[in-house]
Amino acid sequence: MESKKRVTIKDIANHLGVSYGIINKAINNKSGISEAMKKKILDAADELGYKVNKVAQCMARSTIVIGVVIPTNPPEQYSVAKKAIDKEFERLMDYNVRAIYYKVKNVNSVREIGLAFKKCVKDNVHGIVMYAVPPFGMDQVLNELEGTDIKVTIIGHPSLDSEKIICSVHTDAYRSGQIAAHMMALMAPLESNIIVFVSNKNDPEHRLKVEGFISVSEKFRMHVKHINVVGVFETLDSYDIMNQILKNSNSLNEHIRGIYCTTSNLIAACEYIRDKGEDIKIVGSDINHHSVEFIKNRILDCVIYQDTKELVTTAIKAMYEYLAEHKEPSKAIEICPQIVISSNIDGIYKEDIEED
């Protein structure tokens, strides 16, 4: 059987009776051609079955450089995010794209993240993917990009609005909180008192998780008096602060039967429950090699999983398509959270349970 001949730019030019140069401008989205002619050419290319050789097309243009601003703390979260970012940029190497990493120690430091943005400008990056988003002061950080064409995609912050931010990729935080409350109601004894830990009460994502959790817990309480949120505590991702709150929890004059932990230092709560032998149900938000063991040992009952790999891949893809193909992404992209328990942890979290 004779294979079908591959359609070339020459075939399209002959079909329409125009020059190769005009076809090349339309196919590669270059200036110097009217929108009407571009549409005519692209329609003809589609009709003839022309396939763009994207790899060759990308190698013919200048390298796209994307800056990645990422916090190194907590180390477990950094490790998972870094692996996901590395993997996506390995895939994009064939498309003439490379990454420059700008590591920050404190995600809450506007100054430190601002300095990272200054370095991005100095290094002439074409776009920035931002994993480190401070809960306040982002306007000040974005001021570092004034006078440049640099745009940003951000991961994990649902409410920022700026012409410099082309896209926000985040977990559906409100739904995550709702799922956490539903799971807690199924696991905890009747009329249980629950405490909630957040990293920073000013963080919009954590605030939405708390609101979602409370909305469902109130519905359960109205009907069956099941779970009661008796406190929302800010830890600032400090193990010491979390441990102190847990030690003082009985001073609330309410016996705590459950913990919802939206903060990345979930492990501190798990270690406390393990060491004290307390019968407290705990729902978390993060998976790393430590939390995997706590899930398998049934100390951590459930995680409402924020798929870091999907968040990272989606944010990088959005930036690449914006820079290479001039494709405008949706302003906000929400990733639906997953429920992870001991019976499905190995299936969901295969690659990242090993330490670096």
What does this protein structure show overall?
The strands form two sheets. Strands 2-1-3-4-5-11 form a six-stranded parallel β-sheet. Strands 7-6-8-9-10-12 form a six-stranded mixed β-sheet, with helices on both faces. It is built from 14 helices and twelve strands. The chain has helices spanning 9-16, 20-27, 35-48, 54-60, 75-92, 110-122, 138-142, 173-187, 204-224, 239-247, 266-276, 289-296, 308-325, 345-348, and strands at residues 64-71, 97-104, 127-130, 151-155, 165-171, 192-198, 227-234, 256-261, 281-284, 302-305, 332-335, 338-340. It has 356 residues and is of the alpha/beta class. Strand 8 (256-261), helix 11 and strand 9 form a beta-alpha-beta unit. The longest helix has 21 residues, at 204-224.
Helical content band: 40-55%
Q: Give helix and strand order, one letter per element, not per position.
A: HHHHEHEHEHEEHEHEHEHEHEHEEH
Shape label = elongated
Structural class, from secondary structure content? alpha/beta
| Gyration radius, rounded | 25 Å
**Count of extended strands:** 12
Low-confidence stretches: 352-356
Please outline the major beta sheet: 6 strands, parallel
Average pLDDT confidence is 84
